Amino acid sequence: TDDDTLIGGYIAAANDYVEKYLGRSVATQTMLLTLDHFSDQIILPRGPVQSVTSVVYDDLDGIEQTLPASAYVFDGSGDPQWIVRASDAVYPETLAGINAVRITYVTGYSVVPPAIKQAMLLLLGDWYRMRENTAMGAQVLEMPHAVTAVLANYRSFGF
């Protein structure tokens, strides 16, 4: 139990490192994408996207409105995932300015792939063993090749 706090910090840091390296969410989390206006095709960063919770926008009078789900289609089969305007829908005009459209969605793996867990364990092990920024007098400059090799098949290059 002496190292519980230290290990807890390493777990959080490993999760953060892996998510940034992959460009994906590992754990389930709610994300918010803000746009200045609607587009026929909107890529949702930081997949895998589990669901789209809401699409809201500021109308021409500056009043927040919710776009009906029938106005768009969520395509979760590709990588990255995206929202596409429904073929029979017309997106409403929005207030001119920034962040007039806000999309809330849920990302993360429902079951984290074993390879991602293994990469995180490799990081944890290395960080626990080498608590200083040097190893045998030489500065550690990069993560072990094993970590990047294990994560390579899950990396997203959409963003």
Quick overview:
By secondary structure, the chain is an alpha+beta fold.
Please explain how this structure is put together.
With 159 residues, the protein is of the alpha+beta class. 26% of the residues lie in helices and 26% in strands. The protein has 3 helices and 9 strands. It has a 4-stranded antiparallel sheet with strand order 1-7-3-4, with no helix packed on it. A 3-stranded antiparallel sheet has the order 2-6-5, with no helix packed on it. A hairpin with a 2-residue loop joins β8 (134-135) and β9 (138-139). α1 packs across α2 (114-129) and α2 runs antiparallel to α3 (145-151). It is elongated and about 60 Å long. The mean pLDDT is 89.
Q: Approximately how much beta-strand content do the residues carry?
A: 25-35%
Question: Structural class from helices and strands?
Answer: alpha+beta
What summary fits the major beta sheet?
Answer: 4 strands, antiparallel
How far apart the termini lie comes to 39 Å
Question: Number of DSSP helices?
Answer: 3
pLDDT averaged over residues: 89
Q: Summarize the amount of helix as a percent range.
A: 25-40%
Radius of gyration: 20 Å
Low-confidence segments, given as residue ranges, are none
Give the number of DSSP strands.
Answer: 9
Q: What is the N-to-C order of secondary-structure elements (H for helix, E for strand)?
A: HEEEEEEEHEEH
